[in-house]
Q: What sequence folds into this?
């Protein structure tokens, strides 16, 4: 147990936290009866994934990912002649990786849009059924079906 | 011009949404011509792409000219696997758009421009998923597709469609998040999001392909995509979402969304993870074929139990998804399973389109929702009914239609791989389909109750006697609704007759992709 903590939990404690957050979100999507609570769970679930991505870009002692002038031209020159992956002019260790953060900006926008659509839907459901509890909504739908 | 075809396919409808957003809100008459012309541009670009692919191999396109070295370029790639699908998406979207034309007298609602905006955005998403060569882009476009589908489902006037859309949203978002998580693992391990790059790195390092992170990534991606395609245990959202949405929405959602998700799975297997890698490292491939068998059986059984036309068709989609997943997991691209799956994606998109268009016609002009409501259909709408019959025959798998050939290739793949249970499930499901549709045809031919159209209340047979001598007024639906059904039916037969060249095209492209990529480009 001690070894497990030393090797798997402590060096990667952030990932463990994300897993816990994610499962809290997923649990409330599945188990909660109130539609808005479900949506809160869904947001928590998505946020955990965003956190995972964001932590991918972090490097120790790295600076902001802006390449100094002149370096890029040198990089292009060398990469045209030699192997792409072995281009020496840029040292990736010195820069934090910006790609995951940029990707997550997109994912955050997607998440906000989803939440917006979902809240609009809950509003319409509330107008139609007068409740946000899922079991009551389903019951009313059943009654609706039997009338027809 | 022709080198920009890959971008044009998805930019045309995107541009259309902007035009409708700018002008359509004020003048609703703008919406439909814009929609139709944008989709027509997409269709022609897609056909142009097929011609280019067939003459010169895969077509690569880098958005904005940002090419590979920095790894931030967005690559589009059209090859033999996805270019036929692009054409089919464009055709089905066009048919659905023609179907939504309103008859001259009918009042249009304030929702009209929003419907067409969502409709075009959905097409953008579908084209994009199909043509992109970037794993993260697939996520974004899946969400574009999904968000517009939620809107299209909820845009109806019934109370039930909102609840259906909500459930669809929950399932869809969880599925897409799983996909995103899987891509995250890939990026964590490989540092690339470009599909070809990922594959090259995986193929060059055997330990990597076998590593736990990559396996986890694959499983997450698979589960996410399965949720999106309504693969059996994850199918819960589908029947309500598609049967309570308005007919115009269902005519584009039902044929395309699940099929494009199946395509994503195939793409992930063939050109991201690589079939030979999967065969070496994934021990549970047989288990997936079993799952597919369960999906086929369950879908067919549920279809038998349904009393409503659209619900029945939805259950058939679940069974069809089982066919395709099973076919894709039969292994080895040299065998026929994967080819059959890709051909079936095209065939099934057209079949489902034909049936849902016909069901939309019956719902709108006959008020037919339940199976019994179709009685006397052949006397009322002989032409529309013919289209429906051809669609039904294609689902059953009767020879001149494409349904027969796709099942033939799938069964051939099953036999080659020795998956007899899959073969049995396919044949059994065809029999169930035959029972389902012949029951419908019987009602439609011999049903003796012309008053079934009571929902419209035009009242033939007010005299209280429903003898079949009662003169039944022949009321074909208007041309714009009839035409899509008939065109879809004709395409089913054409795709069946010309299955040879289509399959040959897909198969050579598939084998090329699977072998070229695995030797490292």
A:
């Amino acid at each position: 147990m001690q070894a497990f903590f030393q090797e798997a939990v402590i060096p990667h404690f952030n990932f463990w936290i994300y897993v816990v957050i994610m499962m809290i979100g997923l649990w409330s999507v599945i188990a909660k009866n109130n539609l808005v609570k479900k949506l809160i769970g869904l947001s928590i679930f998505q946020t955990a994934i965003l956190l995972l991505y964001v932590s991918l870009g972090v490097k120790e002692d790295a600076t902001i990912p802006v390449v100094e002038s002149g370096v890029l031209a040198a990089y292009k020159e060398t990469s045209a002649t030699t192997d792409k992956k072995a281009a020496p002019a840029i040292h990736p260790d010195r820069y934090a990786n910006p790609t995951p953060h940029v990707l997550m900006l997109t994912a955050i926008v997607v998440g906000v849009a989803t939440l917006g659509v979902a809240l609009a839907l809950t509003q319409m459901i509330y107008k139609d059924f007068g409740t946000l509890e899922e079991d009551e909504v389903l019951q009313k739908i059943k009654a609706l079906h039997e009338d027809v | 011009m022709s080198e920009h075809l890959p971008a044009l396919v998805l930019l045309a409808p995107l541009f259309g949404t902007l035009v409708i957003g700018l002008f359509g809100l004020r003048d609703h008459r703008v919406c439909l011509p814009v929609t139709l012309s944008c989709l027509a541009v997409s269709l022609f670009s897609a056909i142009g792409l097929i011609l280019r692919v067939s003459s010169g191999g895969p077509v690569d396109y880098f958005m904005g000219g940002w090419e590979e070295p920095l790894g931030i370029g967005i690559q589009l790639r059209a090859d033999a696997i996805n270019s036929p699908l692009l054409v089919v998406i464009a055709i089905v979207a066009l048919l659905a758009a023609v179907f939504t034309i309103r008859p001259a007298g009918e009042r249009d609602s304030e929702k009209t421009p929003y419907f067409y905006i969502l409709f075009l955005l959905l097409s953008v998403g579908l084209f994009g998923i199909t043509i992109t060569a970037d794993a993260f882009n697939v996520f974004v476009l899946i969400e574009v597709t999904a968000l517009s589908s939620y809107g299209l489902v909820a845009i109806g006037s019934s109370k039930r469609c909102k609840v259906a859309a909500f459930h669809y949203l929950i399932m869809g978002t969880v599925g897409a998040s799983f996909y995103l998580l899987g891509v995250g693992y890939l990026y964590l391990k490989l540092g690339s999001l470009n599909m070809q790059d990922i594959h090259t790195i995986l193929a060059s390092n055997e330990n990597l392909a076998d590593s736990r992170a990559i396996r986890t990534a694959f499983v997450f991606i698979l589960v996410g995509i399965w949720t999106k395609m309504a693969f059996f245990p994850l199918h819960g959202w589908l029947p309500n979402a598609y049967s309570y949405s308005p007919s115009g929405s269902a005519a584009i959602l039902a044929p395309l969304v699940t099929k494009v998700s199946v395509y994503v799975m195939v793409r992930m297997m063939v050109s991201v993870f690589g079939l030979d890698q999967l065969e070496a490292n994934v021990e549970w491939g047989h288990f997936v074929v079993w799952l597919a068998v369960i999906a086929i059986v369950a879908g067919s059984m549920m279809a038998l139990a349904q009393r409503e036309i659209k619900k029945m068709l939805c259950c058939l989609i679940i069974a069809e998804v089982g066919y395709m997943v099973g076919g894709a997991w039969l292994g080895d691209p040299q065998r026929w399973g994967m080819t059959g799956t890709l051909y079936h994606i095209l065939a099934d998109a057209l079949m489902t389109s034909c049936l849902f268009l016909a069901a939309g016609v019956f719902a709108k002009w006959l008020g037919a929702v339940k199976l019994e409501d179709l009685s006397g259909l052949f006397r009322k709408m002989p032409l529309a009914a013919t289209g429906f019959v051809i669609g039904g025959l294609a689902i059953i798998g009767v020879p001149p239609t494409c349904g027969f050939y796709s099942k033939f290739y799938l069964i051939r793949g099953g036999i080659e791989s020795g998956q007899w249970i899959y073969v049995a499930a396919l044949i059994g499901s065809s029999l169930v389909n035959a029972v389902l549709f012949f029951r419908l045809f019987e009602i439609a031919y011999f049903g003796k109750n012309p008053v079934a159209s009571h929902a419209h209340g035009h009242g033939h047979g007010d005299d209280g006697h429903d003898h079949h001598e009662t003169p039944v007024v022949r009321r074909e639906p208007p041309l714009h609704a009839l035409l899509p059904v008939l065109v879809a039916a004709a395409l089913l037969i054409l795709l069946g007759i010309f299955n040879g060249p289509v399959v040959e095209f897909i198969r050579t492209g598939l084998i090329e992709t699977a072998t070229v990529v695995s030797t490292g480009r």
Observations:
- Chain A has a mean pLDDT of 82.
- The first helix of chain A runs from residue 2 to 9.
- The helical segments of chain A are 2-9, 13-31, 35-56, 71-81, 99-129, 134-147.
